[in-house]
Fold:
Amino acid sequence: MHTISLILISDKDKCLLDCNNISNETIYHLIEDGSISFSDSDVKVRNYQFTYNDLILFIKINEKDTAAIINNVNYTTTDCKCDNSKETTYQLLYQPNSIVLKNLQELTLSIKKEAQCELDCFNISGATLDSMFTNGTILFNQSYPYKVPNPIYFIHYKNQKGNFLFWVEQGATKTRLKHVVKYNPQAISPEDFLEEVFEKSYELKDCNCN
Structure:
């Protein structure tokens, strides 16, 4: 039951979550670590009540136990300005940054030949790579977390040497590091395709690794 990786939530419920300071991480932890009250659930339509500490969440789960739609969450704060948010428009509730990085860390790391060349070019050590998988920031809106069969994540990592963008692919048993480039966050808008950042680096021959 607790293998859900895709959650949909209405704009109104997301507004209410934010108003009550309930983070994505809290929701995913509730599903991972919470208990199901079957007596309060509608099992026939797979609409389950999860409880975790003082939080109660109703979600409808698909037949493969991989996706869910949040139906209702108990809220302590009701004075929220969410009347203009639609109940019929849904958005993705991405997995928290920390959970995805942890999942990537737990798989065997495979470094592609070009990526190793780029790591050497930018003088990125193994310790820095480990730090990226702990402290990096996944750019979810420009990544492909639900790509089948292998999700793709673009991870931003900054250290004293500058800003770097890592192209990481998650397989069934391996985390594949495909490319690394120097990265200027101010030069990129949220609507830009990050693949173009890598293509530009190849054209400029930043590392001559292709």
